[in-house]
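Q: what sequence does this backbone want?
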């Protein structure tokens, strides 16, 4: 593990539920929390990831890393119908648009529900580690999801700061994490393919 700045849960919370995406983003977040001796569990709910083979790769790598360090891993499994229903009519929204908002909110609502039902009072996410994501959009979605349940808070910590982004890259290389070339959903694959074809035609 790498050196990290001191970190503690806010407002006296004692146990964290961490929503995780791919290991490339979540690995450093997990390492930071371990270093800070924060009691936490990993919650994997990402029905946006397409196709299923891609989903399995990302989940298993995340699970292996968490369990290797003794961190409980909660598998919420692959609920694609809920995701397609939630994003229906938003197929042509741009990246960072309303489709992404609905995607984040669906995932965080499920995280907040699990927290509410299982004795967690605060949750966070590793999604903001990616420089391709709008961290303010992510945090706003987290706050709205937490507000659905009394006594549940969202922790809008910026994992990129204090060297987090640099450590994440180094950790991913050291662990030989799988590095995907698209966000995860079928529409991000489509848009990436269209963008590549557009560049080739110039």
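A:
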């Amino acid at each position: 593990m790498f050196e990290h700045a001191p970190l503690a849960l806010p407002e006296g919370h004692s146990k964290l539920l961490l929503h995780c995406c791919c290991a490339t983003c979540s690995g450093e977040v997990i390492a930071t929390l371990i270093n800070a001796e924060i009691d936490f569990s990993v919650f994997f709910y990402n029905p946006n990831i397409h196709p299923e083979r891609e989903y399995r790769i990302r989940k298993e790598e995340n699970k292996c890393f968490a369990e290797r360090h003794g961190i409980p891993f909660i598998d919420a499994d692959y609920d694609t119908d809920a995701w397609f229903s939630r994003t229906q009519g938003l197929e042509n929204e741009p990246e960072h648009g309303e489709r992404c908002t609905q995607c984040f909110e669906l995932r965080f609502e499920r995280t907040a529900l699990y927290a509410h039902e299982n004795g967690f009072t605060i949750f966070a996410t590793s999604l903001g580690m990616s420089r391709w994501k709008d961290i303010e959009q992510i945090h706003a979605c987290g706050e709205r999801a937490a507000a659905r349940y009394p006594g549940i808070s969202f922790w809008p910590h910026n994992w990129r700061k204090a060297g987090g982004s640099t450590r994440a890259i180094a950790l991913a290389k050291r662990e030989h994490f799988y590095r995907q070339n698209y966000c995860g959903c079928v529409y991000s694959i489509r848009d990436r393919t269209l963008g590549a074809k557009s560049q080739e035609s110039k």
